[in-house]
Amino acid sequence: MQFLDANSSPRTRLSAPDGDPEIDMRTREQKMADAFVQAFTTAAKSKHTSTQGGAAPTLLVTVPMSEINKHANGTPALARVSRTQEFVPVAEVSRIICDGAVQAAITDDSGNVLKLGRSQRLFSPTQRKALNVAYPTCATDGCGIPAVWAEAHHIKHWSRGGRTDLDNGVNLCSFHHHQVHLEHLKMTQDPQTQKWKAIRAIRR
Predict the structure, then answer these.
(1) Which residues pair with 153 in a beta bridge?
(2) 20: phi then psi, degrees, rounded to nearest 5
(3) What is the pLDDT of residues 48-91, one digit of tens each?
(4) CA gyration radius for the chain?
(5) Domain ranges for the chain
(6) CA–CA separation, 57 vs 49, rounded Å?
(7) Is the pTM of this model over 0.70?
(8) In contact, 193 and 102? CB cutoff 8 Å
(9) Which residues, in sequence order, are CB contacts of 52 under 8 Å at separation 6+?
């Protein structure tokens, strides 16, 4: 509880397009739940955890081509997690591909596999150290979540051909990582420092 309290007390503020601060509207309970998930995620990726068949546990997600077309057209789309047979938004799959071992199986509407994508190549420990120096906290205006609790986000999404290179990486906390993939936030680069930050996306 002491740990969860420490990670749920700050009131994160974001910069809206008009310059006015916007308060993170999550409840304290939601912040504590997010902190718990982040702690579990960090432990799961530790080098001290077990492997499956000599490799890190890999999540297989199946996505029908028709759902990919929906997602490409900006409409809600669903994928299925093989381990639990649960449906999840394709946008969520895009987020977890950034920072987890995920393999996507693209199928036709009858379930026949058309393409089995490679599992994600994560940022290496050395790359993560370099990212932590460049981005010591979440790269969102007003967010003070430290880099050790952040997730490495691909500026150009890995699922869209983005490379796992330092110039394509940035640290984001789990909450703001979700917000970027939901397109509530967008990434922008400072022309002078070349540093990336997440800012509120302007809705048209």
Answers:
(1) 170
(2) -80, 140
(3) 666 655 555 667 888 888 888 888 787 888 988 887 889 988 87
(4) 18
(5) 2-45+122-200, 59-116
(6) 10
(7) no
(8) no
(9) 58
